[in-house]
Specification:
With about 350 residues, this protein is an alpha/beta fold. It is built from twelve helices and ten strands. The chain has helices at about 95-100, 110-120, 140-145, 145-155, 175-180, 195-200, 210-220, 240-250, 270-280, 280-295, 315-330, 345-355, and strands spanning about 45-50, 55, 65-70, 70-75, 100-105, 125-130, 160-165, 185-190, 225-235, 255-260. Helix 2 (about 110-120) packs parallel to helix 4 (about 145-155) and helix 7 (about 210-220) runs parallel beside helix 8 (about 240-250). It is globular and about 60 Å long. The model is unreliable at about 25-35 (pLDDT under 50).
Amino acid sequence: MNKFRGRSTQSNIPNRFEKIYLDLSDCEDESYFDSGEDPDKIPTVYYNDYSRSVLARNESPDLGHEYSINPYRGCEHGCIYCYARPTHEYLGFSSGLDFETKIMVKKDAPKLLEDAFRKKSWKPQTVLLSGNTDCYQPIERKLKITRQILEVFLKYRNPVAIITKNALLLRDMDILKELAKLNLVRTVISMTSLRREIQRRMEPRTSSPEMRLNAISELSANGIPIGINVAPIIPGLTDEEMPMILKSAAHCGATYAGKILLRLPFAVKEIFVEWIKKEFPERANKVINRVREMRGGELYNNEFGKRMRGEGQWAETFDKMFHTTCRVYGLNNNVVNMSTDLFLRNVDDQQELFG
């Protein structure tokens, strides 16, 4: 039973860059975590992020895009396995509770994106919306930063790929439909498990599996290109669900698919191991040992070409299972590139010229 409801992580692990650490795991005074309303809940605190640029350049050959944009740093979804947790340490926070309760908000992101598109140096290309933390996490319902960003993509006719675990994506159907008409958008719903008892423990503030499948159906019915990402595959816990996830998504209208193996960089190792031993003690050793089998005896290997898929017999088995299932359900048969020849750099000047 979690001490703090709605949070997958139950403590703050030391920041690898900080020399001073306050251990509150055995703290008897719970007022430190008290929101003032419910002692079992930890409030989420939001901070303004004053970054001067918003497009992050990717130098990893494992990813199929050069640039990504993330409206938020930290993620209230609280996925226990999230590979982005260690990035919070660059801000002086912890990869643990801090990551899901202290969120940096880029309110200027739409304007910064517009500034980037106006530069002569910008070459129109697909930008990944999310990639580090979810652009449709709970606070987006109120702030609508992601929606404003999508409006900029539409205004300048620049292609965008969206990946999320939240059915809130449907709120922006009107913009997505306009982008789709111009072949400027691809959407992806990420799914780890179809079992709610696992989803609730592992990613407590994400949309339920049923809501995600419904989102796929709605997007497909409205002509929005939609795919499924089986991610992460957790060997010994969720790996056997891969075929059913792909089948369910295809039946709902998904036309393309991807997969990513569980990644445990830096502090995520300790966070995940602590969690699996507590939540699924009967499976913990199996999961940990199988992860090691796929990571050359370690819990993680960040080597390009291996970090996303692993290595060894289990990795090969997952690859075969994935590709076979995709063939059976017609996934990845017709992958169409998005348009880049519609891009408008000085869009305001042109609108003024033509009234």
